[in-house]
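Quick one, T. Sequence first:
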Amino acid sequence: MDERRRLAKEIELAATPDQVWQAISTPQGMSIWFVPHELTGEQIEADFGGGNTQAGQVLEWEPGKRVVYAAPSPDGEPPMTIEFLVEGRQGGTTVLRLVQSGFFGDDWEAEYDGFGKGWTMFLHNLAEYFRHFPGLPVTGVVATGFTELPGETVWATMIARLGADPALGEQVHLTPEGLEPIDGVVDLRDKSLLGIRTEHGFYRFMADDLHHMVSTTQYFYGVTVDRESRTAAWQSWLNHLVEE
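Structure tokens:
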């Protein structure tokens, strides 16, 4: 067995190779579809919400074609790496390949599955960005709550607090208490995942049983949003949800 345990994803995007390269090789580009990223010295720091940040560095760099990032790993272990490969296709589309290597510990299969589902969602974000909001800048909001409650229990509570349990493709009007309503269409749906596309961006709600957390990632394109106040409001909403 390959002890590096490689996870691979591939997606064809309605964008040029240069547009895709910018989306996977710069902090601004990564923020468009993943989580907010910032350059801190020689490292790139990702904000996963709730005070959870992770710093990584560039291991390999082939401009316009390939970049490899190294993420933190247990002491003495090779780093977990995330490789992006960009390949243009005839007709103006681009194939993006992602390879993540290095899963450790007794729960590596669950970790592998969790990362796989996460990357499917984030790559869907990138495809939908190019389809609906190409070229627009983003303001990203991430909030994460941690809990020892079972994932199914937390997810059921979240759905109840949002005010709807919609199906894929359904038009929705969500009413989270104390926050502005969310109007849009369900563009992602799974057992513990709900994604809404609105007029100006995306809302993603997730429960992660492996890491005992529940989170929301939100993307607002081409509009003015107070990231700090919105993050605080959603963090408070999630904290209240997991404390009950």
